[in-house]
């Protein structure tokens, strides 16, 4: 056998295939991956440091810019962390509105995952289907808060405003149409033998390895680990809803795809239950205009579409946080890339990046 030298190939930073400004330095033996080292930092904006010179309220819009595909979840995690530190009680109606919004955002985020995976592997129609269905959700967000991407809708003590009269009928119409949308997407992608062969038995991550890497969210559950913060440590009012946690069997790219597809169905079920139980009442608690949390520190995490999103806040008693650190699931999940890609081909690296579903806005922070 001829012994060849390895060579280096830079994949990215470019948006197609690397999902943003991520550079993956590949060491290759022919087309086989020896190492895949992710180089991050091209989008670093110093958001955690900026928090120290902003009041607690002023920092809410910055959280929208982390995982900008699921900004509602970012708002919720941050607001619940400060509320935990201050002991703020949330009105019942606001709790339900928060659940409706973050679960709608989970569906929207997974639709972007589905479309990105499809176009990364050459199926541009899948991207158009994903954006088409997501548009219905963005219309709902536009009704609720006047924004379509960065919302700042969830606030300390509740939400910024109650729903307009046309929101619930439009939401119910979407929920009625969504099963057919999902089946159409399954028909386009899940039944596609090319997609199946590209993902099945590709980049298997066992449950043991997934925990070693610190994976959370769908990437962890695809490896068979039943860990969802909405079930394990219910926050808000998640303990009032009946839903299941989809799990994978082998932990390959196919399982990571299927788990997210099924999660959309479960999120729609949660939203339907929340709409049915939605009480009347105020949507905002009585909160001081200037927040001065007591001296101390707190950590709180939620189940965001990409995994465990956590905020650690240190308060010195002033209107501005002394320190904030964000546990970003995209950053943690990306640590699995190198070991997972070893032995695969160049084209498989794109599939691994797509099914880990990292988003560079929160990778760099």
Describe the protein's architecture and organization:
Strands 1-2-3 form a 3-stranded antiparallel β-sheet. The N and C termini lie far apart (47 Å). It has a single domain (45-364), classed as Cytochrome-c3 Hydrogenase, chain B, CATH 1.10.645.10. The chain is 48% helix and 13% strand. The model has no long low-confidence stretch (mean pLDDT 94). The chain is built from 16 helices and 8 strands. It has helices at residues 15-18, 47-50, 60-64, 71-86, 92-120, 124-145, 167-190, 193-199, 207-213, 218-221, 229-232, 253-277, 329-333, 337-341, 346-356, 360-364; strands at 7-11, 23-29, 32-39, 154-155, 158-159, 296-304, 307-315, 323-327. Strand 2 and strand 3 (32-39) form a beta hairpin. With 365 residues, it is an alpha+beta fold. Helix 5 packs antiparallel against helix 6 (124-145).
Order of helical and strand elements: EHEEHHHHHEEHHHHHHEEEHHHH
Tally of individual domains: 1
Which architecture does the CATH hierarchy give at level 2?
Orthogonal Bundle
Distance between the termini: 47 Å
- The average pLDDT is 94
**Low-confidence spans:** none
Question: Mind telling me the CATH class?
Answer: Mainly Alpha
InterPro entries: NADH_Q_OxRdtase_suD, NADH_UbQ_OxRdtase_49kDa_CS, NDH1_su_D/H, NiFe-Hase_large
EC number: 1.6.5.11
Keywords: NAD, Oxidoreductase, Translocase, Transport
GO molecular function: NAD binding; oxidoreductase activity, acting on NAD(P)H; quinone binding
């Amino acid at each position: 056998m001829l012994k060849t030298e390895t060579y280096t190939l830079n994949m990215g930073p470019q948006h197609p295939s690397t999902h943003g400004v991520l550079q993956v330095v590949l060491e290759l033996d022919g087309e086989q991956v020896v190492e895949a080292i992710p180089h991050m930092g091209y989008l670093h904006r110093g958001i955690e440091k900026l928090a120290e010179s902003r009041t607690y309220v002023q920092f809410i819009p910055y959280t929208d810019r982390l995982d900008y595909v699921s900004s509602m979840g970012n708002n919720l995690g941050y607001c619940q962390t400060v509320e935990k530190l201050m002991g703020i009680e949330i009105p019942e109606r606001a709790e339900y509105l928060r659940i409706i919004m973050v679960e709608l955002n989970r569906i929207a985020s997974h639709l972007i995952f589905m479309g990105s995976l499809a176009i990364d592997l050459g199926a541009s129609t899948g991207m158009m289907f994903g954006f088409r269905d997501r548009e219905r959700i963005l219309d709902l967000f536009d009704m609720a808060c006047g924004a379509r991407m960065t919302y700042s809708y969830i606030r300390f003590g509740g939400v910024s405003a109650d729903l307009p009269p046309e929101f619930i009928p439009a939401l119910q119409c979407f929920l009625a149409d969504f099963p057919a949308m999902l089946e159409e997407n399954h028909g386009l992608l899940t039944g596609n033998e090319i997609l199946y062969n590209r993902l099945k038995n590709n980049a298997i991550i066992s449950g043991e390895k997934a925990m070693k890497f610190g994976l959370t969210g769908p990437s962890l559950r695809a490896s068979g680990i039943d860990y969802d913060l909405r079930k394990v440590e219910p926050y808000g009012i998640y303990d009032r809803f009946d839903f299941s946690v989809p799990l994978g069997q082998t932990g390959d790219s196919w399982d990571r795809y299927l788990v997210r597809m099924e999660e959309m169905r479960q999120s729609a079920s949660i939203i339907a239950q929340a709409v049915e139980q939605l009480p009347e009442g105020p949507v905002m608690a009585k909160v001081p205009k200037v927040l001065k949390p007591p001296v101390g520190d707190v950590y709180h995490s939620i189940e965001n579409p990409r995994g465990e999103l956590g905020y650690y806040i240190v308060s010195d008693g002033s209107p501005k946080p002394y320190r904030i650190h964000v546990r970003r699931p995209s950053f943690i999940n990306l640590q699995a890339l190198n070991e997972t890609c070893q032995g695969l081909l160049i084209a498989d690296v794109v599939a691994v990046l797509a099914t880990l579903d990292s988003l560079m806005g929160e990778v760099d922070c």
